[in-house]
Each structure stands twice: as C-alpha cells, then as structure tokens.
Amino acid sequence: MHLHDLIGIGFGPSNIALAIALEEGREGRPQQRPLDALFVERQPGFVWHKNMLLDQAHMQISFLKDLATLRNPSSRFTFLNYLHEKDRLQDFINLKTFFPSRHEFNDYLAWAAAQFEDRCAYGEDVFEVLPEPRAGEVRLLRVRSRDAAGAVRERLTRHLVVGVGGMPRVPAEFKAFKDDPRVFHSSNYLEAIARHGEARRIAVVGAGQSAAEIFMDLHGRPQRPQVDLVMRARSIKPSDDSPFVNEIFNADFTDFVFSRSGSEREELLNEYWHTNYAAPDLALIQQIFEVFYRQRVSGEPRHRFLRRHEVAGVQAGEHGLRLTLRDLNHERTITQDYDAIVLATGYERDRHRSLLAPLAPYLGDWEVDRHYRLRGQPNFHPSVFLQGACELTHGLSDTLLSVTAIRSGEIRGALHGATGLDHATGRQESSRQAA
C-alpha cells in the first residue's frame, strides 16, 4: 500500500491553504523531496457553503485575508492574482470594496482548488482513522474512506490534518425531526427551500448572519411567504468590526490567547463573542428594520419579529409543523403552525472526536499545542493537526478565514520538522515554537 507523508481530511479553504503553503515551501528548492500529501474530500467537487450562496450575500471579511496573502503577499494564489487571471482586477478596484460577493469568493476558492486536482480524492467520505501499532509503537495511521458506490478505500499515512469544518447544530427540540424535510438547517437552505416553493408560512430560528440573510432572501421571493424571525435575544446585534476590536483576529493575538490560562481564555471568548456569533452586518440589520417599518406604514403585517421567544416544543400535524413558543417578555406560551422551519442555529466543531475515536487511547485529553497539533502519548509518533476546531485554545479567529493563510504556514513548519525534511518555514513559522 502506498505510504503518504500526509493525508488531509476535507478540502475546504483551510486544507486548500495548506496545499498552497506546501507547494510554495518547495519553491527555489528543486533538489528537495516534496512532501507526499493527499487530501480526501467527501463532496464530488469543490464548492464552499453551496446552499448559502445567496444572490445578495457578501463576505464579512476582507479579501486580503485570503488563502495566501498574509503569509506570502507575492503568492500566485492570492485573491488579487485570481482577479488578474480572470481579467477583472481593474473592474474590482472600481467597486471600491474590500468585501467581494460570496459567489465571487467561492469562485476564487474553486480556482485555487482546481490547481490541486491531482492531490485531492473527491467523492470519498472518511469515516475512520485507525492506528497501526508495531511493537507497542504507532508510527502510521490507516485512513478509511467510502465512495458514493459504497466501496471502501484504505490509505496509510505518517501524518494527518483534519479540516472537516463544522457540523450543523440542531437544538434538542428538533432532533426528532431530522428526517422531516420540512425542518432543515441553514447549511442546506437553497436546496431545501427549492422543495418548498408553495410554503406560505415559514419560521427562521436564529439571530446571526445566516438567519438575517435567509429572512431577507425569503422576503424577496415571488411567492411572498410570511416569515417569522424567532430568537431568544431582545434585538439583533451587529458584529463589532471596529479597528481595535478587529485586532483579536490578527495572527499575533493567537499567541496571546494560547499563552493565557483556561479561565482567561474563557473570559476573552465571552468578551468578544459578538464579534463572530449572533452578529449580522449592520447594513443587513438596517434592511430588516426597514422591512418591518414599511409593514407599519402599509398596515400589512406580512412578517413577524418574535424576539425574546424560545422554542418550547415541536409537533408534526396535518396542518404542518406546530411550534410552541415561550414568550419571555410576557411570560406566556403561544403556538403557531408553519409549512417549513429553517434552523439558522450555527455549527458544532467536534466531529474530529468521532472521526479519530480509535486514536483516543493515544491522545489523552485531546489537548493541542500551539501549532494545532494534538498532544499524543510518547509511543504515538504521527502528528495529527486540527484546522478550525481549536477556538477554545487559539481564539475566535480559529474558525474564520482570518488566520487561515498564516496557520497553514505554521502547520507546514511543524510538518517539516516532524517529517525531517529540511524546508525553510518562513518568518511566521520560525518566530513561533511548538508548545
């Protein structure tokens, strides 16, 4: 069986950025053996949040925080070079914005991913990672995946990087309805809502960017459904993107967070929580406010903003789905029937635990070092890196694009040390030592 130096699980932005960093780490060193890296992606081809590519949606983060710029501004994989190759650079400049449409950024990511087609196995879902013990030592891992036809493929690797993204968070009240097509998560929005073109009344549960975008998308649909925006919060709060607050997404702030105690990290996460969670763009909030204001002017209350309401129960009936909502303002309970319910309730970031469960005896408390590497037992030699699952130790930027470029360089540096390859790791990597 062919032995890889590295297998990456998932080929989203984080692992694309790592593929770029590994590629650029070899530039100018043709005599050095390249790292044998393969990425395994369950989707049949690259697409990024395909069910939230809404027509009016824009990025909430500057295009300069792309796959490469902050690590290597001269990289050919920057967003600016993408625009140049697509012959749109001058026109983009004339837009006078740092925030491209989500459609365009998805196209940029697909453009970058396409340059690594020979290093990605698409259409395979990794379901298990097994240790390969020899004489009490583990030096290799066996990665098992299944393709669309059900065929199982096994590969051996010295090291592993897990970049599987988040899994939809479904509130407990809705777990019994996971197979009901009338209840769906925002991650499946466009595909699911296409099956509900005749829905007259829809509930959107959530208070973040996705909930706000979906509300406005439903508002603009020709079927003119009635939409209830349901949230526990008193109001929709905007994300704080002011300059000093935005410094928490700088790469050096990761060092600061990692160096703090557990209680200090928790305080930092709580203090800045609304920079990333339940915090839509201010312009989007203003659009929603205008919708409700125009309703008051016209006297036609099509939509409702059910703030300070929480879901107390869900029932399926002949008239659709009945939500029991607890009105926290007036301490009363109300019920309402819906044709569809959209859960804009965020994501869980712990899928790596089930995926790596067979390795648990070697991984202790699932702690990571500064280079995003799980701390293993002395007899466990593979490096296992986590991308996008280290928020508690590395800060709020961990699940975002903000540090993706630099993180890929840090992981590259740690990989080269682990594999014994003599590659220069660049300024960012050499300035940071693994904890």
From TrEMBL:
<protein>
    <submittedName>
        <fullName>Ornithine monooxygenase</fullName>
    </submittedName>
</protein>
<comment type="pathway">
    <text>Siderophore biosynthesis.</text>
</comment>
<dbReference type="GO" id="GO:0006879">
    <property type="term" value="P:intracellular iron ion homeostasis"/>
</dbReference>
<keyword id="KW-0274">FAD</keyword>
<comment type="similarity">
    <text>Belongs to the lysine N(6)-hydroxylase/L-ornithine N(5)-oxygenase family.</text>
</comment>
<dbReference type="GO" id="GO:0004497">
    <property type="term" value="F:monooxygenase activity"/>
</dbReference>
<dbReference type="Pfam" id="PF13434">
    <property type="entry name" value="Lys_Orn_oxgnase"/>
</dbReference>
<dbReference type="InterPro" id="IPR025700">
    <property type="entry name" value="Lys/Orn_oxygenase"/>
</dbReference>
<keyword id="KW-0560">Oxidoreductase</keyword>
<keyword id="KW-0521">NADP</keyword>
<keyword id="KW-0503">Monooxygenase</keyword>
<dbReference type="InterPro" id="IPR036188">
    <property type="entry name" value="FAD/NAD-bd_sf"/>
</dbReference>
<keyword id="KW-0285">Flavoprotein</keyword>
